[in-house]
Design goal:
mainly alpha
């Protein structure tokens, strides 16, 4: 069986600004999603007598689990955040169906997709950066 040819890595100068940008965007989107959930539950949601801080805490718990690692720039935690975003994506789609919560659903869905994408790009470029630092050859020198 023929071996697949390894794809060359981009140079460090190309990777560094993109990694920094995606890390910053991921953190901003994480904060925006948390603010959206808190504002919705505290001001707009009709929780039928449930305690708003309990509901907010339950919805924020997955975000709080990944937040410390994302702040530190861990590629592994960013990858796990992609899995966590699936929960918010599903919740957003379900809210989008309900006319009373359509704008919340749209915002939550768009924020979760954007956070998923930025975290995924950060993971990709971070691992390419680490491979470069480990001594693999960049694309420009091949």
């Amino acid at each position: 069986m023929a071996r697949k040819k390894d794809k060359p890595l981009p140079p460090l100068e190309w990777l560094q600004p993109r990694m920094r940008l995606m890390h910053g965007i991921s953190l901003a989107l994480l904060a925006a999603l948390a603010v959206l959930l808190v504002v919705w539950n505290q001001i707009f949601a009709d929780l039928h007598g449930a305690r708003t801080w309990v509901i907010s805490g339950i919805e924020l718990f997955p975000l709080l689990l990944v937040a410390p690692g994302m702040l530190l720039g861990s590629a592994r935690v960013h990858a796990w955040a992609c899995f966590v975003m699936n929960l918010y994506f599903i919740k957003g789609i379900l809210a989008w169906i309900d006319p009373a919560r359509a704008w919340l659903g749209m915002a939550e869905t768009l924020l979760s997709v954007a956070l998923f994408t930025s975290a995924l790009l950060y993971v990709r470029w971070r691992y390419q950066y680490e491979r470069q630092l480990a001594g693999e050859t960049p694309a420009s020198s091949l």
